[in-house]
Amino acid sequence: MPMASQDIVALIEGALPGATVEMRDLAGDNDHWAAKVVAPQFAGKTRVAQHKMVYDALGDRMGGELHALQLTTQAPT
After folding, report:
1. Separation CA 77–CA 75 (nearest Å)
2. 53 and 38 in contact (C-beta within 8 Å)?
C-alpha cells in the first residue's frame, strides 16, 4: 500500500526537527513523490549527505511502501 504524503512528512519532520517539507504527487498515484526538504541539520553537509539523512528518516519504507521519491534538499537561507 502506498504511503500518504502526511506520513512521509511526519517521518522526515520527526527525524529532522525544524525541517519544512513540501510534497508533490508526481504521477497522481500516491506512489511517486517529489519532496523539498529544508532543514537546519543540512548546513555544511553535501547534497549526498543531506539525501542520506532523509532516506535514513524513511528507513526501510523506501522501495517498499514508498516506491519513488525525488528529493530536493537545502539548508535554510
Report:
1. 6
2. no
**pLDDT tens readout for residues 4-48:** 899 999 999 999 999 999 999 998 888 889 999 999 999 999 999
Q: Look at residue 56 in the predicted model and tell me its pLDDT.
A: 96
- What is the 8-class DSSP label of residue 76? -
Q: For residues 46 and 61, give the distance between their C-alpha atoms in angstroms, rounded to a whole number.
A: 23
Helix ranges, 1-43 (H): 5-15
Beta bridge partners of 43: none
30, containing H or E segment: none
